[in-house]
Amino acid sequence: MLTRRGQTVEVTDRPYNNLLRRLNASDYALVAPYLSDGDGRANDLLYSPGDDVDLVHFPCGPSLASYLVPNEDGRDVETILVGREGAVGGIVSQGYLPAYTRIIVKFGGPFVRLPISKLDAAKGQSKTLRNVFARYADCMLAQIFQSTACNAIHSIEQRTAKWIVSAMERTDGDSSVPLTHEQLATLLGVGRSYASRVIQSFKAEGILDTRRGAILVRNPQALQMRACLCNEAVKNHFEEVLRGVYPTEEPEGA
Ligand SMILES: [Zn+2]
Known about the structure:
Layout: E1 2-4, E2 7-9, H1 18-22, H2 25-31, E3 36-40, E4 45-47, E5 55-59, E6 64-70, E7 76-82, E8 102-107, E9 109-115, H3 116-125, H4 127-153, H5 156-169, E10 176-177, H6 181-188, H7 192-204, E11 208-211, E12 214-217, H8 220-226, H9 230-241
Antiparallel strand pairs: 1-2, 3-9, 4-8, 5-9, 6-7, 6-8, 10-12, 11-12
Helix pairs in contact: 3-4, 4-9, 5-8, 6-7
Bound molecules: zinc ion (ZN).
């Protein structure tokens, strides 16, 4: 709980982003005046390689962002998804540095933005705030390491199940995941027909269904069984390093 301008602000009155909610009251007060609300629509471009990174974007609620690495043959490969457990833009670096990847809005919804200069100033004022962001950067690196290993050794089927589970977890366990076959193919770095084949076999087993532009998960336990353990490994690291930030709590309002 924090008191600002004589008002009591509960943690749940903050934007629905676990990193912002993890900050202690005085650390949150350092950044709160500079946060601005906005909405992101699916496929909105947040950064292109080489852009000056001047804003940190915090996905809130059902929103998801993703890091894409463009390749010389024109194909983009998605590396990691970031939901309300984190933030994108200038997380590892400090100050204005060019973006390395493309960062897009994957699932539309509310985002909160904070100028990097204000975040850097707050880090300079508070060791505990600096510590939360350093720990988040460590978790994000773990996610990237795991993603590299996953792409190298796990099957398309395991990775498909993992992506759907991880998108569900980061969006309140909603059984409708707004992913098309095309988007799934990009996540997996495979052709659309491969992605469709895996979806068809999961459909045949009653694990999921497809709707226009979305995947409907019928049997989350079965899907989890088919996934590799990469997402679990990342989740465990979050629990060690930043307990409570990876979404495991009941959805808001439940
Ligand atoms: Zn994996």
